[in-house]
């Protein structure tokens, strides 16, 4: 159920350069790949932030400091309340498959965590391919391992794992079904290379609930789709990536 | 306290109307609350044909507000009439159809299509959307053009016509008088103020359309001033709009001379803002000593 809630910050810690993990005590529940609209004090529009984990009594958000709003967010300490609206959007489906590959690049990784958790609950074999620029930016690799996922890492500078992008790792594997989130070039490459799976898009949003038409993309027939409502997760091949 | 407001064609149970473009056709908000609590709904602009609108990014944040350049994205008036209006009929609220176009004849086409729809109670002419390159801006900023499209719309319309004015003019009373003389039944003001933001990383405009319409609390003082000016210049009912976030803002618009209000961007910040304002309004009117909406309207320029 979509709701507005004053959530209480339990923790808000830096886990990599510019990357923060915030746990919010709240009653809100969510499906993997959904997001919340966060009302950051001192700003006007809400910030769409993907949900990393749903614990039952809290939501975990992992976000990157990219502008004024997220910079303010990073300064908020435990005990403060933060108004959130959600859960919003269409997330990653948990399909009846034997094995799934989850591909994440940088700050696109967080929504894959809850996705992996749900697949592991169903005993699905999960291989997670995570891409980062360099070694010090790696986060959550151990968390995925604890879920029982096979974790493979790519770094642009080759300091850890395969040198290059997530695609360099994927090329070496069998990928029957992939669910991915990350930078646009990565999603484009995945959409071109694999017929079966889902990708999650990022967009500037206003309402976050499908009313304002601020975040539209085009499908293959030129029809408008709302990233916030019809997505952010779309089946591979559905959206024209520009 | 009774909150109802009687305007040409509109029997509003309260003066709160979500603004066009900020509420779609109500479907998303109906998941959150019963739309029958609303005085009315100004539905998203209809054009004769389907429009995809502008490229993205279409949204940028500003201090106390936002810029948008959606570009009148809609499925076209026939689709709206066949798919959105019948769905809206389930709610006990007054539907105002926002009419837009790239040329004068577009307004007539949309109106002629909607004339036989029982659910539409009034038209709101969008002559001020600043984002459409060929048309919109031209009509709304020139008194002669504004009057001409108003007259064409009035000749075609079988329902009252409200004209939504652009604030991007030197003297808004001049435009207001011109559309009043052309037969408008009411005025809605203000539409968004044209603005721009530049992305410091690229040095280029942040919006793909380059310019966008500024809305949100940032524009409220401009809207209040313009409602105040127009209310004294023309004898037409005014629906005030611009930066409303709570019931006290509504009272400010009533005092400025508006008879009802539209709530726009705040629906994005707090999707429950309209029912909240409706709930708060009687208390706020009482707090400032009003026994009715009427008593508050235009108080700012009335002799007391």
From TrEMBL, chain A:
Cofactor(s) listed in the protein's UniProt record: [2Fe-2S] cluster; FAD
Cofactor binding: number and manner: Binds 1 [2Fe-2S] cluster per subunit.
Pathways per UniProt: Pyrimidine metabolism; UMP biosynthesis via de novo pathway; orotate from (S)-dihydroorotate (NAD(+) route): step 1/1
GO molecular function, one term: 2 iron, 2 sulfur cluster binding
Keyword Transport: yes
UniProt keyword Cell division present: no
Boundaries of every FAD-binding FR-type domain copy: 2-94
Keyword field: 2Fe-2S, Electron transport, FAD, Flavoprotein, Iron, Iron-sulfur, Metal-binding, Pyrimidine biosynthesis, Transport
Binding locations of FAD: 47-50, 69-70
Binding site for [2Fe-2S] cluster: 207, 212, 215, 228
Matches recorded under InterPro entries: Cyt_c3_hydrogenase_gsu (IPR012165), Dihydroorotate_DH_ele_sf (IPR037117), Dihydroorotate_DH_Fe-S-bd (IPR019480), Dihydroorotate_DHASE_ETsu (IPR023455), FAD-bd_FR_type (IPR017927), FNR_nucleotide-bd (IPR039261), PyrK_electron_transfer (IPR050353), Riboflavin_synthase-like_b-brl (IPR017938)
Signal peptide as annotated in the record: none
GO biological process, one term: 'de novo' UMP biosynthetic process
Domain of life, source organism: Bacteria
Protein family (similarity comment): Belongs to the PyrK family.
Subunit structure: Heterotetramer of 2 PyrK and 2 PyrD type B subunits.
Role, per record: Responsible for channeling the electrons from the oxidation of dihydroorotate from the FMN redox center in the PyrD type B subunit to the ultimate electron acceptor NAD(+).
Name used for this protein in its record: Dihydroorotate dehydrogenase B (NAD(+)), electron transfer subunit
TrEMBL record, chain B:
Cellular component GO terms held in the UniProt record: cytoplasm
Coiled-coil segments: none
PROSITE patterns associated with the record: DHODEHASE_1, DHODEHASE_2
Residues involved in substrate binding: 44, 68-72, 126, 191-192
Cellular localization per UniProt: Cytoplasm
Subunit architecture: Heterotetramer of 2 PyrK and 2 PyrD type B subunits.
Chief localisation class: cytoplasm
Purpose: Catalyzes the conversion of dihydroorotate to orotate.
Gene from which the chain derives: pyrD
Domain Dihydroorotate dehydrogenase catalytic, chain residue ranges per copy: 3-285
GO molecular function: dihydroorotate dehydrogenase (NAD+) activity
Chemical reaction(s) catalysed: (S)-dihydroorotate + NAD(+) = orotate + NADH + H(+); (S)-dihydroorotate + A = orotate + AH2
Cofactor remark: Binds 1 FMN per subunit.
Cofactor(s), by name: FMN
Similarity annotation: Belongs to the dihydroorotate dehydrogenase family. Type 1 subfamily.
Active site: residue positions: 129 (nucleophile)
CDD domains in UniProt: DHOD_1B_like
Gene3D superfamilies attached to this UniProt entry: Aldolase class I (3.20.20.70)
Keywords, alphabetical: Cytoplasm, Flavoprotein, FMN, NAD, Oxidoreductase, Pyrimidine biosynthesis
Residues where FMN binds: 20, 44-45, 98, 126, 164, 190, 216, 242-243
InterPro entries: Aldolase_TIM, DHO_dehydrogenase, DHOD_1B, Dihydroorotate_DH_1, Dihydroorotate_DH_1_2, Dihydroorotate_DH_cat, Dihydroorotate_DH_CS, Dihydroorotate_DH_I
Protein name (record): Dihydroorotate dehydrogenase
Pathway annotation: Pyrimidine metabolism; UMP biosynthesis via de novo pathway; orotate from (S)-dihydroorotate (NAD(+) route): step 1/1
The EC number(s) this enzyme carries: 1.3.-.-
One Gene Ontology term from the biological process aspect of the record: 'de novo' pyrimidine nucleobase biosynthetic process
């Amino acid at each position: 159920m979509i709701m507005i809630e004053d959530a209480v910050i339990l923790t808000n810690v830096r886990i990599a350069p510019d990357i923060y993990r915030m746990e919010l005590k709240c009653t809100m529940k969510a499906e993997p790949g959904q997001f919340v609209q966060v009302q950051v004090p001192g700003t006007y529009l809400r910030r769409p932030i993907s949900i990393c984990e749903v614990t039952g009594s809290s939501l975990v958000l992992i976000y990157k400091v990219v502008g004024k709003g997220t910079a303010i967010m990073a300064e908020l300490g435990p005990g403060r309340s933060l108004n959130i609206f959600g859960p919003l959007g269409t997330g990653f489906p948990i399909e009846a498959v034997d094995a799934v590959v989850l591909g994440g690049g940088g700050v696109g990784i967080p929504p894959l965590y809850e996705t992996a958790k749900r697949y592991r609950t169903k005993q699905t074999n999960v291989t997670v391919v995570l891409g980062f620029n360099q070694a010090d930016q790696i986060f959550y690799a151990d968390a995925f391992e604890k879920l029982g996922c096979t974790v493979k890492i790519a770094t642009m500078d080759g300091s850890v794992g395969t040198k290059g992008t997530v695609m360099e790792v994927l090329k070496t594997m069998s990928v029957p079904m992939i669910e991915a989130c990350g930078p646009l070039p990565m999603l484009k490459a995945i959409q071109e290379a694999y017929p079966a799976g889902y990708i999650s898009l990022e967009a500037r949003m206003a309402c976050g609930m499908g009313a304002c038409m601020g975040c539209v993309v085009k499908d293959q027939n030129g029809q408008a789709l709302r990233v916030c409502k019809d997505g952010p997760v779309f089946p591979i091949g559905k959206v024209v990536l520009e | 306290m009774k909150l109802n407001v009687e305007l040409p064609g509109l029997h509003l149970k309260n003066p709160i109307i979500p603004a066009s473009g900020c509420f779609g056709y109500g479907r998303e908000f109906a998941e959150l609350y019963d739309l029958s609590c609303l005085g009315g709904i100004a539905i998203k602009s209809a054009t004769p044909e389907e429009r995809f609108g502008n490229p993205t990014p279409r949204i940028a944040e500003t201090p106390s507000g936002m810029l948008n350049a959606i570009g009148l994205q809609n499925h076209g008036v026939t689709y709206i009439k066949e798919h959105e209006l019948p769905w809206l009929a389930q709610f006990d609220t007054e539907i105002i159809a926002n009419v837009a176009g790239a040329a004068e004849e577009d307004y007539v086409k949309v109106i002629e299509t909607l004339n036989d729809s029982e659910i539409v109670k009034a038209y709101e002419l969008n002559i001020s959307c600043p984002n459409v390159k060929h048309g919109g801006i031209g009509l709304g900023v020139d008194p002669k053009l504004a009057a001409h499209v108003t007259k064409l719309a009035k000749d075609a319309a079988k329902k009252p016509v409200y004209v939504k004015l652009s604030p991007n003019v030197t003297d808004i009373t001049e435009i207001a008088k011109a559309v009043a003389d052309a037969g408008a039944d009411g005025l809605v003001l203000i539409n968004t103020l044209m603005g721009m933001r530049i992305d410091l990383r690229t040095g280029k405009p942040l919006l793909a359309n380059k310019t966008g319409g500024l809305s949100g609390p940032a524009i409220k003082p401009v809207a209040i001033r313009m409602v105040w000016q127009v209310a004294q210049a023309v004898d037409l009912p005014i629906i005030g709009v611009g930066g409303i976030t709570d019931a006290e803002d509504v009272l400010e618009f009533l005092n400025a001379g508006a008879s009802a209000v539209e709530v726009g961007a705040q629906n994005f910040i707090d999707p429950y803002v309209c029912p909240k304002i409706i709930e708060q309004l009687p208390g706020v009117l009482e707090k400032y000593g009003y026994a009715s909406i009427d008593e508050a309207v235009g108080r700012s320029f009335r002799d007391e």
